[in-house]
């Protein structure tokens, strides 16, 4: 049996860095690249140079400091999130390489059929959130790349790390002047990234809602943060209507159904903790590391 060789696209990114460290800790052969995936010739040369068995695609435009950036930079957003993602999927398919895409679950919004506390969105539900150009590109590109038989699509939402990295959801909402208070699915990276490697190594394909089971509100997250990490921390809320006045693009709020993911991971003896439990464990690790 040949040894797996991982090539992570988007090599300077936050999630990519977490994956690299995790793979190295597991003793796996891993390489990073920052080659533009929309440049077909350069991407092909990189694949031929490294000869990976698995590509983990963490590249793409999310915008800086947030997705509002994509509203004013639509061409660059399309070049990366659409042209690049499809191009890399096609190159991997032609070369017989397993292709994992770290995608987004921010393609849904609560509606009459999926109200807060009601049925969560399954992988088979068509995307219904087009309030941001970022989400629009992601929803459409998933519909295309999921047809490649070598492709594994993992839908992350509001990813959280065990530190206060600027890209972490907790860091973001802890710095906002005001936050909305709506239940959402979240991805605690410590819980989910090992599962991503597990699925890729076993050549799993298809679309998975890639979050901790359940939904948690912003106030619940910040309450746990206050109680475990930063005593005395305080915040203020505002409504969705008030939020709309200070952002350029809409924001997705939804709960994703993780039944498919949980059942698949059980086959490998892996369990992802429920989101409230996951946050308690995450903040416990944060406190133990001396984060304040």
Can you describe what's shown?
41% of the residues lie in helices and 11% in strands. The protein has a six-stranded parallel β-sheet, with helices on both faces. The radius of gyration is 19 Å and the shape is globular. The relative contact order is 0.14. The mean pLDDT is 92.
Helix-residue proportion: 40-55%
The biggest beta sheet reads: 6 strands, parallel
The overall strand count is 6
Weakly predicted, low-confidence segments = none
Determine the mean pLDDT: 92
Within the largest sheet, what's the order of strands?
2-1-3-4-5-6
Report the portion of residues in β strands.
5-15%
Counting helices, strands and paired strands, the structural category is alpha/beta
Radius of gyration: 19 Å
Order of helices and strands: EHEHEHHEHEHHEHHHH
Shape designation? globular
How far is the N terminus from the C terminus?
A: 46 Å
Helix and strand layout, with pairings?
Layout: E1 5-9, H1 14-25, E2 29-33, H2 40-50, E3 54-57, H3 68-72, H4 74-95, E4 98-104, H5 133-145, E5 151-156, H6 169-175, H7 189-201, E6 206-209, H8 218-228, H9 240-243, H10 259-266, H11 275-288
Parallel strand pairs: 1-2, 1-3, 3-4, 4-5, 5-6
Helix pairs in contact: 1-7, 2-4, 4-5, 8-11
């Amino acid at each position: 049996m040949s040894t797996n060789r991982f090539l992570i696209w988007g090599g300077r990114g936050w999630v990519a860095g977490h994956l690299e460290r995790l793979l190295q800790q597991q003793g796996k052969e891993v390489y990073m690249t920052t080659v533009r995936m929309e440049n077909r010739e350069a991407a092909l040369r990189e694949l031929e140079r490294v000869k990976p068995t698995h590509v983990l695609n963490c590249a793409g435009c999310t915008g800086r400091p947030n997705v509002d950036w994509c509203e004013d930079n639509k061409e660059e957003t399309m070049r990366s999130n659409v042209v690049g993602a499809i191009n890399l999927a096609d190159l991997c398919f032609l070369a017989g390489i397993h292709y994992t895409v770290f995608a987004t679950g921010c393609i849904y919004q609560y509606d009459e059929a999926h109200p807060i506390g009601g049925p969560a969105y399954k992988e088979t539900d068509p995307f219904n959130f087009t309030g941001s150009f970022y989400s629009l590109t992601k929803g459409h590109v998933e519909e295309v790349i999921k047809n490649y038989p070598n492709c594994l699509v993992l839908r992350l939402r509001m990813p959280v790390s065990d530190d206060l990295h600027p890209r972490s959801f907790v860091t973001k909402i802890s710095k906002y002047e005001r936050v909305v208070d709506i239940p959402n699915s979240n991805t605690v990276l410590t819980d989910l990234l090992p599962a991503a490697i597990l699925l890729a190594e076993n050549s799993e394909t298809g679309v998975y809602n890639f979050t901790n089971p359940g939904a948690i509100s912003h106030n619940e997250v910040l309450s746990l943060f206050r109680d475990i990490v930063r005593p005395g921390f305080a915040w203020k809320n505002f409504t969705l209507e008030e939020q709309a006045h200070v952002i350029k693009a809409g924001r997705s709020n939804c709960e994703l159904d993780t039944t498919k993911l949980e059942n698949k991971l059980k086959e490998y003896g892996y369990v992802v903790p429920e989101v409230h439990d996951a946050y308690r464990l995450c903040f416990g690790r944060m406190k133990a590391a001396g984060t304040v």
